[in-house]
Amino acid sequence: MVGWKEKITKYSPGIEVLCIVLLGLTPMLWLRPGYIIAHGDYFPWWLDSSKAFNNDLFLWDSSFMGTPTTFPFCFILELVWLSLRGTGLTVGFIQITFQVIFFMGAGLSMYYLSKTVYPKLKLSHLISGIFYMFNFFVLQSRLNIGFTWTYVFLPLLMALLIKIIEATYQQNNKTVSKNIIYLAIASTVTLSVASINPPNIIIIFLLLAIILLHYLLTIKKHIRPLLLNILKLVAISIPINLWWTIPTLNYYLWSPSVFNPQISVTAWSWTHTRASFLNLFCLNGVWNWRPEYVPYIDSYSNPILIILTFIPFLTAAAALLFKTNKSRFNTYLMLAILVFLFLAKGLHEPLSQLNLLLYTYIPYMAMFREPTSKFTMALMPFLALLIGYAIDHIVNIKMSEVKHTNFTKTLTAAFFITTFIIAAYPLVTNPIETKTQQLPISSYIKIPDYWYEAADWLNNQPGDYEILITPPNDFYQMPYAWGYYGVEFLTRLIQKPVLFSNFDYKINPNISTALQQLYNTIKYNKITEFKALLDLLNIKYILQRNDIQYNFAGRDIIPPNEMQAFLTQQPYIHLTKKFAQLDIYEYDESKPYVYIINPSTLQQTTIKIENISTLERTWNFTYLTDLQEWQNATEPNQWQTIYTIDQDHNALKAELWNSTWGWKTLKSPLLPAQYGDTYQVQMDVKGQYAHEVHLKISEFNLDKNILSEIYTMYVKDGTFNWTHTTFTYEPTTSNTRYLQIQVWHGHETNKTFPNLVWIDNVQIKGYASILNTTGLNLIFQNATQNQLATIINYRKINPTKITATINAAQPFILAISETLDQSWTAYVNGKQIKPVTLYLGLAGFYINQTGQLEITIEYEPQKWFYYCSIISLSTFLACLTYLTYNWTKNKAIRKRISRAFI
């Protein structure tokens, strides 16, 4: 008779899958009814609006940002979201449902990969699947949709590729064809959503290439059929993925908009500081592992928990000790893991210069500016495979003296599974919650009803115009008094074009500059310029948010009462609607979206933003006078230490001895400054045993009394070569009359003495930005009807198409209050006309025809999207037809065989 212990340990794939499914329900523990999850960079993109979904199918940004968009990537995701929303589920419940799908999908996907790689092993599949779900690293990426989507599908894509390769060697053409189609369909589901973060695409292709390379290197036969099948895979995958590929290529490669300088690796090098090998081996090198961001961080000071986080790599290494027919494959996986660990450390020492070479000479390598999260994700499938393999062999080591061997195996496996879950225990409690003592803002929020009411009112107002969001945002995340701190996702509720501070991978410099100037006119009370920009940017409504936590630490946000005072003082603006904490102001003299300009008028206008130089100082330390200016400004004995400044090979050298407490500060002379001006600062810094070198700016009033010390940027720690630093600074108070550049280092240093810091090529440039409005009064004179032409009617059909009927007596310029790039085209009587830049990047079309004209203005890439979507859909239907036919045929064959035996 079989005992209960033997029954529960009897192998069953069904039980394994059920186990993963049940553990995959873990995110249901995170549900808080009535709340949605949003914080930081993570937000509920889709909320309730089907209109947002409609806008997302167009390749031009509907928010007046003057750039294309990649939003069509989210078609599948939004379709699922809206379908769930249509059933009456709340937004918060749908978010948790997606988390369950991600969590469960990751486990099942990894289970399938392990079963494909190690088909003869029994326990490894379950172990690999559970570890892949429960690992420390996943804590930091659970809310990033594109990131998590990639993580879920990576093992599945790898498994399908291996199926194709193995079926090729077995000369099973039917299986090959079926898996080629499966992989092609899975690729479009995966890659489309993963493309929200382009590095995800590279990671996916890189891992597939690693798998393919192994088989090409180790199995010499059937190379030609394999390559032929890979070509077939490519031939199907390309057309089925065209629908999202075109928007992505258009956004990143074909568009003339420029990459945001804030996404460079040097700008993000500070995130590499935690990527030590020690942290990487416990799968936790992410920059935000800090008390202000992680509420459960204190738990990980527990020695037992620290040890448990290292078990995965120790277990994976043990896989190399078992000599089987998979030994070479396992060694190959471990080498790949080590390479990814090296890439994941980024610019962290050691060998930081070698990593820097990769960023310097590999095109688009800057997309991995935060390498820990990307490359740690890449090694996870390989690590999970080796862990499952090792544990399977560990529990099957012969133990002749031990009774109930099967039960002992189960206990051993359970021990490892428990360590995975304990090491990542916040996945069971609640990793979504981010409320900490230092940053007491929860990730669970309730959007006030007045936001929905205000958005509905704005959406229902007739006409084409822009909505300005105030107060100005000094950072891309905004704190709200009702408990939210993160990106400006609330603007997604408003379907009209909005103007607000925005962070994106690519920017239109014209819009960015104009918007910054507009916000500066508010901040510095430049009333004339403010009204001119309202005209030029086609602004009709201003949404003033009085629910902003304006006194949030470290932020420079205009208080609500000051914003209200500024707006009500303008005679051409009135408060038209109020929704609790939101005020909607209307600009009484708003200008039209489409208007007529006389070509000769442009010759009489000079409308542009100009920078007037107000300060320029440089110190190269070639001459002693440069050195002496910094020596005179820097205290020689700070905190009772020996601190000397000298000249060394045409650079300034600061040498620090016997320091135990207090920051040591290297200071420039005082420089004249003015509130409202902008200052660009750059310098080269080098260190030897230097301690946490960073830069600050001090502000002084007219009496040279210090007003503030502002942290501007972190440089480096320890020994490092010349590092070029650059930042832009604006004085924070109206009383500021002087600035001082400061280099801070050496507080409680444990480095070898002397601590040395060199600086060179210090430069500061100050300028004032003004809007030159010469000829502005000529632009909007009889803008829709004058001697040249009359606009009979026009219609903005969607973000990528405008039609107009014009009665023209003479050639004219049809002006559009948008920044259109050269991919826009006007069609007039069969003739194509490209846009010309008018002012501030705004565009128009010079029409050299007369009579009644039917004009269509289109964004050309939108047509490519339509054509490619048709190709993708046709390819998908063809694949579906083949699978259906194949399944029906096989089903008929199975029936005939069954009848024959009967």
End-to-end span in angstroms? 35 Å
Assess the beta-strand content as a share of residues: 15-25%
Helix and strand composition category: alpha+beta
Give the count of helical stretches: 26
Mean pLDDT: 88
Shape label: globular
Computed Rg: 31 Å
Describe the structure in your own words:
- This protein is an alpha+beta fold and 902 residues long.
- The chain folds into 5 domains: 4-25 and 105-111 and 124-143 and 263-429, no CATH class; 145-256 and 861-902, no CATH class; 447-591, no CATH class; 612-773, Galactose-binding domain-like (Jelly Rolls, Sandwich), CATH 2.60.120.260; 776-859, Immunoglobulin-like (Sandwich), CATH 2.60.40.
- Helices cover 41% and strands 23% of the residues.
- It has 26 helices and 29 strands.
- The strands form 7 sheets. Strands 13, 14, 15, 16, 17, 18, 19, 20 and 21 form a 9-stranded antiparallel β-sheet that branches. Strands 7-4-9-11-10 form a 5-stranded mixed β-sheet. A 5-stranded antiparallel β-sheet has the order 22-23-29-25-26.
- Helix 13 (303-318) crosses helix 16 (371-395) and helix 16 (371-395) packs antiparallel against helix 17 (405-423).
- The longest helix is centred in the last third of the chain and has 41 residues, at 861-901.
- It is globular, with a radius of gyration of 31 Å.
- The two termini are 35 Å apart.
